Amino acid sequence: MNSLLNNITAFYPTLVEWIKNIAGFFIGFSLVLSLFFLIGIIYCVEQLKYIRGKEKETMNLKVVPAFEDVPAGDNIMAKRWESVKTHIATDNPNDWRQAIIDADIILDDILNRMGYRGESVGEKLKRVAKGDFATLDDAWEAHKVRNEIAHEGSAMSLNHHEAKEAVNRYKRVFEEFYYI
Known about the structure:
By secondary structure, this protein is mainly alpha-helical. The protein folds into two domains: 1-60; 66-176. It has helices at 2-59, 75-88, 93-113, 121-126, 136-152, 160-176. Helix 3 (93-113) packs across helix 5 and helix 5 (136-152) packs across helix 6.
């Protein structure tokens, strides 16, 4: 029994030293690994900042609004608006559709004059900041009706009330920027 006890006490200090060595190795290794990951995180954050800056330059194509330089009551716009009003006043659903399409073209021209760029009116409206355009929701709702007309054509059921509502939404947008 004494020999077994001697073996355990002789083995115990060696086991403790071995555990200390392993723990020391892991602590040292984890410090190096933590430092490596910290440098990696800092690098990724800086690269993300750079990418966000480039994204902002690319996506923020809005320039200074031109509506400040345009005198109130543009004559050409007024004539085009009169055409829209003439179309919406008839009893012909095709004329109502044409009125909405013409009003959307006017909206496209206004967005171009204001400096918004994009392939379509929808893309230009996406670039508009909510604070820059008080009637942005009206523009979106009217443009949605125009898209339905463009995609469905004469198959789209459109009553006179809906058509007038869409044209009135366009009117509110145009009035905000003094185009009519």
